[in-house]
Structures are given as C-alpha cells and as structure tokens.
Amino acid sequence: MRLFSETAFFILLVALVSSCGSEKKATLVFEDSFDRAEIGENYEIQGGDWRISDGKLRCKTAKNRNLVLKSLDLPQNAVIELTMKSNSDAVDVKFNLWGDGKIHDHGDGYSFILGGWNNRISVISKLDEHEKKRAEKRNAGLEKGKEYKIKVERSSNKIKWFVNGKLFLEYNDEAPLKAAEGYSKLSFANWKSDVEFDDLKIYSLEEK
C-alpha cells in the first residue's frame, strides 16, 4: 500500500542520479497503490484474470496476455519502482518496460523476469525473453511468498535493476529502444503463477 512520510516523499522527488558524468533529477510522474475495486481506465487488459483485491494487483494465469499502462508514455530516461510477490513454487514474476503495448508471446520491450523457468533463471531481455544477449542471473535463491522491492533505472543505453536495494542485473544496449519511436509502455506480465504487484511509482530523469 502507498504509505510514506512527507520527508521520504521529499527525498524521492529531489533524488539525484549520476549518469555519464552528469546529474539528473528524478521527478514523480505517475503512481498507483491499487487501493480500489476495479483496475480502471488507465490500463488495457489483453487477457488473463488480472484483477485488484485487497489493495494489490493480482493474477493467477495470463499466458503472456499483459496488463498495459495505456495512459502514460514512459520517459526515455526513467526510474520505475514497484513491489511484487509470487505465491507459487515456480516464482516467475515479470513485467515489461519500454514496450509497444501490443500482444507478444515472448516479451515486449525490455522484459524483467524474476525467478523464471521454474525459479532457475532471472533475466533482462530485449524484445524476446529468449534473447541470446539477455542479461542473466541463475539460482538467485528467490522465495515463494516473499515480497520483493524493485527499482529499475534507465539512463541512455544503460539499464540497472535493483532488488531489495541491491543491484541485481545490468543491461547495456548498443541500439536502445526509443520512446519517441513507440517503445514507451509499461506492462505487467504473467504466465501461470499466482502473482501480486503493488506500489507502482514512475519518475522521469531530467538533466539538472
């Protein structure tokens, strides 16, 4: 749920991120605590059993039919924060950033998969979760029923993924997807795991 002090909120708004020798300011542009009964008009449901219950976005089966945040185009450089949890032994919790928001079978934009392939492999991939050049972490010891706090930072061609405050994976893209060319959507994804998402926050990174 979205509960934080005024001091914490101020720190988040004025956070400075170092990138390529220059300073960038993180400005909050969207947040969703899912404290309501229905998913709402901000999102497009491509399929599956996406729903809100007890202040969480939930899904048990979607077979890669995503829930797309249609009302916002992601900034080219941004920070995305959320919490997520799997109640399945396979874990397999995933989301996509800087996608085109269309239906794809194996990933949209950059895919972030935590404990995929029966909790054996976590990845950042581009356009296809089976991408040969994907960034991987194997056997990370992820747990059913544990909440993971996620942060993704993108600046230029560099993407960093933090899990519970620690750098988890990095992806450097020589030909980065561009928001101006239609790769600007966030989507929640699932195959057949019992997953939960909460506390979505999106920040634009701007040169100070």
Question: What layout of secondary structure does this protein have?
Answer:
Elements: H1 6-13, E1 16-19, E2 22-32, E3 43-45, E4 51-53, E5 56-59, E6 67-69, E7 78-86, E8 93-99, E9 110-115, H2 116-119, E10 121-126, E11 135-138, E12 147-155, E13 158-163, E14 166-172, E15 185-189, E16 195-207
Antiparallel strand pairs: 1-2, 2-16, 3-6, 4-5, 5-16, 6-15, 7-12, 7-16, 8-9, 8-15, 9-10, 10-11, 12-13, 13-14
Structure description:
There is one protein chain. Strands 1, 2, 4, 5, 7, 12, 13, 14 and 16 form a nine-stranded antiparallel beta sheet that branches. The protein has a seven-stranded antiparallel beta sheet with strand order 3-6-15-8-9-10-11. It contains two helices and 16 strands. The longest helix is centred in the first third of the chain and has 8 residues, at 6-13. With 208 residues, the protein is mostly beta strands. The protein is globular. The protein has helices at residues 6-13, 116-119, and strands spanning 16-19, 22-32, 43-45, 51-53, 56-59, 67-69, 78-86, 93-99, 110-115, 121-126, 135-138, 147-155, 158-163, 166-172, 185-189, 195-207. It has one domain: Sandwich (Jelly Rolls). The chain starts with 5 loop residues before the first helix and ends with a strand.
Structural class: mainly beta
Q: Would you identify the CATH architecture?
A: Sandwich
Distance between the termini: 31 Å
Tell me the radius of gyration.
16 Å
State the total count of DSSP E strands: 16
Quote the average pLDDT. 91
Percent of residues in β-strands: over 45%
Number of domains: 1
Shape, please? globular
CATH top level label: Mainly Beta
Low-confidence stretches: 1-21
User: Total number of helical segments?
Assistant: 2
What is the N-to-C order of secondary-structure elements (H for helix, E for strand)?
A: HEEEEEEEEEHEEEEEEE
CATH topology: Jelly Rolls
Sheet with most strands: 9 strands, antiparallel
**Helical amount:** under 10%
